[in-house]
Description:
By secondary structure, this protein is mainly beta. It has helices spanning about 15-20, 55-60; strands spanning about 10-15, 25-30, 35-45, 65-80, 85-100, 110. About 10% of the residues lie in helices and about 45% in strands. The protein has a 6-stranded mixed sheet with strand order 2-5-4-3-1-6.
Amino acid sequence: MIEVLDLALSIRQPYVEMILTREKRIEYRSRRTHVRGRVYLYAGKTYELGNEGWPEARVEVLPMGMIVGSVEIVDCIPWATGKGFDWCLIKPIRYCEPWAPIGVPMPVFWKPKGRQ
């Protein structure tokens, strides 16, 4: 059964995959978030290279432009330099079937309006 959540968090591949496999537990952002709780994980329509162990051919087969799971945001810790924040993520859930959301994805948080 798919959860019904209010917000989706947009993240590029392969970072979404790394969150779902628990390799990545911190999302680095330039802005603070006060959002806490479970949010959808939206794999953006583009990917980012340069991650050791993630060659382009491997990243290209990951789902993109889809809701692929969910994760809980439990904290937001400012960097000592004052120039960024660690968003602490726990309990990722991978959906058996990724789905295309209705709505216009935004760079950070956005509200999907259902499924296509």
